[in-house]
Amino acid sequence: MISVAVKLTRRDFALDVAFEGGAGVTGLFGPSGCGKTTVIRLIAGLECPDEGRIVLGDRVLLDSAAGVRLRPHRRRIGLVFQDAQLFPHLDVATNLAYGRFFTPKAARRIGRDAVVEVLGIGHLMKRRPATLSGGEKQRVAIGRAIVPSPELLLMDEPLAALDDQRKLEILPFVERLRDEFGIPIVYVSHSVEEVARLASTVVKLDRGKVARIGTPAEVLAPTALAPAAGRFEAVSVLTGKVGRVDPDYGLSFIDHPAGRIVVPGLLPATGSDVRVAIRATEVTLSLARTHQVSVRTALAGRVIRVDTDHGPFALVTLELAGGDRLHAYATRLAVDDLGLDTGDEVQALIKAVSIDERAVPGLRVVTD
Amino acid sequence: MFSAEEWTAIQLSLKVGGIATVVAVPFAVAVAWVLARRDFWGKSLVDGVVHLPLVLPPVVTGYALLLLFGRRGVFGAFLADHLGLVFSFRWTGAALAAGVMGFPLMVRAIRLSIEAIDVRVEQAAATLGAPPLWVFATVTLPLAMRGIVAGAVLAFAKALGEFGATITFVSNIPGQTQTIPSAIYALTQTPGGEAGALKLSLVAAAIALGALVISEVAVRRARRGAAA
């Protein structure tokens, strides 16, 4: 349980943020320059707010009114930078062991071997950071941060510096961290898909202030995002179970009550719950069930709302079998031609489902 | 091959240069770190004072040392009375002059190498639980090692060549303060001394070259270590 309330004024920037994060992942989400990274640095103690209070569990890390300010090395908070920042002069094993030395014996609840196993970095132990790929570096950086068994893990856009294949590679590791080690995580990202997939609570920041706090489905839904930025950012969050993976096609199949969702990449752990983020602009609506198009994902749902207040566009909200909501943008012309209205049964065809499809053009082809 | 006097000058030069460099390194690392990582009022003044020996005529630096560290100088008197450390007209004075003259070069090299270290690597160490001194010893110092070695070699070479400040501060006493440059100067003033001056000049060149080679090897090793 982390509780943050901080105020900070710099020459060209003001921050006034308060939120609480519980177990699991708290996503700090917002456009660049909104103050996400500053919040992370304040929690880690690398910067000092003008006033504020930060409490982790029962420990007060910062209380400007009481004059309490714990130095970073006393906070027991792990930090993963966007660009790994490994110790270049030490090999991977020593990087991982670095923080162990400072962990009180009683607090060592995470085993190094378990971390190495989850992150799949056992074969890298003797290597120097300069010889690692970007994805490997980031995995080692994540490992280095959790081996000392921190009480909170801060991740500052940990995937932003990686190419898309590497993102797909690492995201499941972050999910396993969240599920297997039980460390609360504050995860900073400007990627809707990452936040939707990982976070149980989303704090949306805008120009140094909290714009909204809620579940991913609430905060990331089209109706919650500003119309200007909203059309391309808006996503629906669906939860399903990993069914089958197909190494030949490089695809995974997620079972959802409303149908089978095809995603690019090989998800680990068949049977585990996964969340999928689907952009409202990527959904095609069809009245007939058809296999004559290239799209392989078709979800059955019922129209519960048609909102035509978007210029040439209409926002159609479906209730899928199982209760998840799915948002779709269509032109008003299409809505009228099909005669779509609330209560209609439709098929939602989803062309590309990926972690961040703006950045994954290659994967779009694979999903079709 | 060498006369006893020339031999003494060579040995003295190595001793003076070596001690001056070794003693100066910790001070230079401290000053370089402060200049690279801390902001405080009067920082440019400190920076300026550190660089003064580089831009002043060496004779002026020597004269300033004489005023400050001479037997009756402000610091000189104190150090002589309390620590028994006398500089004037001793080899220790030659080492002080050499150290002061080489100090700015050393600080510059080390400061640059510290500034080249991403602060966030040090911050990563802090978030892993390492106290500041520990971070300095296990992260900053190893990553700055190339600059420290390069700065030390530069200062050593400067110490070997130092003449103006030394001769002003501690004069030119064979066996006590007569380093290679002073000996060369003395030889060129003596009829028939040219051969000796040439020999010593070659020795000076050889030592300087040797120091550069050693530093090159050390830097390469540090680089392999740091993989930076």
Characteristic key phrases:
A: 368 residues; alpha+beta; six-stranded mixed β-sheet; 36% strand; globular; disordered C terminus; B: mainly alpha; 79% helix
Question: What does it look like?
Answer:
- Chain A is 24% helix and 36% strand.
- Chain A has 368 residues and is an alpha+beta fold.
- In chain A, helix 4 runs parallel beside helix 5 (164-181).
- Chain B has 228 residues and is an all-alpha fold.
- In chain B, 79% of the residues lie in helices and 0% in strands.
- The longest helix of chain B is centred in the N-terminal third of the chain and has 34 residues, at 4-37.
- Chain B is globular and about 70 Å long.
- Chains A and B meet through strand 7 of A and helix 6 and helix 7 of B.
Question: Please, how many helices of chain A?
Answer: 10
Overall average residue pLDDT of chain A: 83
Shape summary of chain A = globular
Report strand order across the widest sheet of chain A.
Answer: 7-8-9-3-10-11
Give the distance, in angstroms, between the N- and C-terminal Cα atoms of chain A. 42 Å
Mean pLDDT of chain B: 90
Strand content of chain A: 35-45%
> What is the N-to-C succession of helices and strands of chain B?
HHHHHHHHHHH
**How many individual helices of chain B?**
11
Count of distinct strands of chain A: 20
Strand segment tally of chain B: 0
- Whole-number radius of gyration of chain B? 20 Å
Q: Give the N-terminus to C-terminus distance of chain B in angstroms.
A: 45 Å
* Estimated helix fraction of chain B: over 70%
- Quick one: which chains have the greatest interface? A-B, 30 and 22 residues
